[in-house]
């Protein structure tokens, strides 16, 4: 077996959901559209740049992008003159993203388009900066370039199924070779994003969709960038009707398309959600106003059953389509949520209904599952404690991130917690995730993929797992104290 080279996909201090503006470390080279190619080349040599943004001087709106490679090509092979205005040879409508969008979205977008540069803009459209592949580093690490090419070149579901299998096999190799859990989950989530986007593209060609803004949204582990090797679908669709009266008719037109995408994802190995949280379900194919009302109901009337089933919706992020209305929904949510004290009390109470599986003497305790009597469900009795607390605190503090580790870091910083305490919580969460992944790679039983028998672990791993559960118990203690429960 050939040696596996592992590159860091993302730093373990978390950058996947950091805003892109934090990566733009210097002012980009900006030139007006009338600038001559000769002068642009001179600026490249003087400023040691390989790309320039063409922008309107008065409005600061980006109009295009030109690279050193582009200019050399047109001058050498297309008979361009050095006195030509740069606007004649720029790439119009270049790849652009809001400066406050998360880094992960940029990585996926650049990998999908094969782009080397990405223009960042302020909310009013003005230029903020420019990031490059070197700034982002990541999604193509771990030998993913050929995987990305295979995903982009797939022309049918059979090819997509093969692509999914290759991603999972490569991910297993990286895990066994020692890649960190956070890096691996984000690597897997990034490639799964590309797979889902390509499947949507293939299905979209078969439908005459309404000419209104719409976006495919993901929830749960995919929304949190925490996908492992066994994952089901949690998705929805948001659309923006021209008026409220047209909402039902538009939904009826989107539903067959959304259902077809759900079926295609299932065919490619992403199981249907057992709870029906899929875009092909009319309950989760909603207008922007309906989504806002749905979240508002959860916040203002925190029925325990609704809180239990609705928690994963707060991990949403846009995946495919027009992301702007989804970002607007998130912006509204982080403004509206912090005031809803009853909702947070209900969320905390629901999270505390089950405790970590440790007995009074510090020994493991079990849920007496009929088929797996001496096992612990590491998702429901382990990782969940960290996910629930991180989600609650992020919403309460108005933090945009959806990833559990990113939430714990951001909230810990805002609350001035000791860095070593934050690190201990995150390390415990990732340790539980590592044991989950180990089990998923060892079993074919779908009901046992998150269950581990402590007797199957060596003594060191049993001690490590107990320490992780003790961290979960401390987190629950903080929730209990904060909400007087």
Automatic annotation (TrEMBL):
Which CDD domains has this protein been placed in?
Answer: NT_GlnE_GlnD_like
Q: Where is this region: Disordered?
A: 1-27
SMART domains in UniProt = CBS
Matching InterPro entries? CBS_dom (IPR000644), CBS_dom_sf (IPR046342), CBS_domain-containing (IPR051462), DUF294_put_nucleoTrafse_sb-bd (IPR018821), GlnD_Uridyltrans_N (IPR005105)
Domain of life of the organism in this record?
Bacteria
**Keywords on record:** CBS domain, Repeat
Provide the CBS domain boundaries. Answer: 23-81, 90-146
Spell out the protein name for this chain. Answer: CBS domain-containing protein
User: What species is this protein from?
Assistant: Allochromatium tepidum
């Amino acid at each position: 077996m050939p040696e596996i080279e592992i590159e860091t996909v993302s730093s373990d201090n978390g950058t996947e959901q950091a805003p892109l503006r934090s990566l733009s470390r210097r002012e980009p080279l900006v030139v007006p559209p009338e600038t001559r190619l000769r002068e642009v080349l001179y600026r490249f040599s003087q400023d040691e740049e390989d790309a320039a943004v063409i922008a309107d001087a008065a409005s600061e709106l980006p109009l295009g992008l030109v690279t050193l490679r582009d200019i050399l090509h047109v001058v050498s092979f297309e008979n361009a003159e050095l006195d030509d205005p740069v606007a004649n040879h720029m790439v119009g409508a270049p790849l652009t993203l809001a400066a406050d969008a998360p880094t992960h979205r940029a990585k996926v977008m650049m990998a999908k388009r094969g782009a080397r540069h990405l223009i960042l803009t302020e909310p009013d459209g003005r230029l903020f900066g420019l990031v490059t592949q070197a700034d982002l580093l990541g999604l193509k690490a771990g030998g993913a370039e050929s995987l990305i090419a295979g995903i982009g070149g797939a022309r049918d579901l059979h090819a997509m199924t093969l692509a999914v299998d290759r991603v999972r096999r490569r991910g297993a190799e990286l895990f066994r070779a020692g890649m960190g859990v956070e890096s691996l989950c984000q690597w897997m989530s990034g490639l799964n994003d590309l797979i889902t986007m390509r499947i949507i593209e293939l299905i979209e060609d078969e439908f005459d969709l309404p000419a209104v803004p719409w976006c495919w949204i993901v929830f749960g582990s995919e929304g949190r960038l925490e996908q492992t090797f066994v994952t089901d679908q949690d998705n929805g669709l948001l659309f923006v009707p021209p008026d409220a009266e047209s909402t039902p008719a538009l939904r009826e037109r989107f539903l067959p398309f959304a259902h077809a995408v759900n079926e295609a994802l299932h065919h490619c190995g992403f199981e249907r959600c057992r709870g029906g949280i899929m875009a092909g379900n009319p309950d989760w194919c909603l207008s922007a106003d309906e989504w806002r009302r749905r979240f508002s109901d959860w916040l203002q009337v925190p029925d325990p059953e609704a809180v239990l089933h609705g928690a994963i919706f707060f991990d949403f992020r846009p995946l495919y389509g027009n992301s702007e209305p989804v970002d607007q929904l998130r912006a509204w949510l982080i403004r509206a949520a912090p005031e809803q004290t009853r909702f947070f009390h209900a969320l905390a109470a629901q999270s505390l209904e089950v405790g970590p599986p440790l007995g009074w003497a510090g020994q493991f305790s079990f849920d007496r599952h009929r088929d797996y009597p001496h096992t612990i469900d590491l998702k429901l009795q382990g990782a969940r404690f960290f996910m629930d607390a991180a989600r609650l605190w992020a919403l309460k503090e108005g933090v945009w991130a959806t990833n559990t580790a990113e939430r714990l870091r951001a909230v810990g910083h805002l609350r001035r917690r000791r860095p070593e305490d934050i690190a201990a919580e995150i390390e415990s969460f990732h340790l539980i995730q590592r044991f989950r992944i180990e089990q998923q790679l060892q079993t074919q039983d779908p009901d046992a993929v998150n269950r581990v028998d402590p007797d199957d672990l060596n003594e060191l791993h049993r001690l490590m797992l107990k320490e992780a559960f003790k961290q979960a118990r401390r987190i629950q203690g903080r929730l209990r104290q904060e909400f007087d429960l």
